[in-house]
Amino acid sequence: MIKQNICLLFTLTVFLTSAYAQKTVNQYDKDGLRHGLWTKNYHNTKEKRYEGVFKHGKEIDSFKFYTLSGGKSVLSAIKVFNESDSIADVTFLASTKKVISEGKMNGKRFIGPWIFYHKNSSKKMIEEHYNEAGLLHGERFVYFKNGLVAEQAHYKNGKLDGESKWFSEDGILLRQNHYKEGELEGKTINYDALGNKTSEGQYNNSQKKGIWMYYKDGKLIKEINHTTQEVISHKE
């Protein structure tokens, strides 16, 4: 009899605990706003899509987001919210739990500095900055795995604007030019893999204009006026 009562008490405890746990998940406050721990599965599955805590409709603390891989939920992103605004510290993850990128988001917009990492490595691949509108703004760097700069460019409201440079994996400058509102504008100089100048001239609205000079092994071999398409000199 005592054994039966113990079994009955245990069963009741498990039932009440389970019922209470279900009651405390996915609840609303008196105003109909999500409040407390929320979790959601992918449609018609038991695989988790996200989980996190709301406070009267506002996300707070850490939210975990999952993608489906092989039919199973795999952690793909962590967003850490605060109570004062909609900005979150965000980390995107590979299926191996390696960090892919990290920065801040305001809703679905990237804002502020972001860092992206090389595949299967903790070395930085890209550094860039976004304005409040979620547009690239300021300096952007792309790195080789050896840590040297591959590209350096400046953006303004989502468009290339200012000086840009490209480098070889050995650190040799290959190209430098200027942009204005996304279009090539002003002087451009191109170099070969040894650092010898191969061509230089002016762009206007992404079109070659004026006299361009072309080189071979560092020596001037040709001049072309790209406004009139006239070959001014040819020494090759």
UniProtKB/TrEMBL annotation:
Coiled coil: none annotated. The keyword NADP does not apply. Keywords: Signal. It comes from Winogradskyella sediminis. It comes from the Bacteria. This is MORN repeat variant. InterPro entries: MORN_2. Residues 1-23 form the signal peptide.
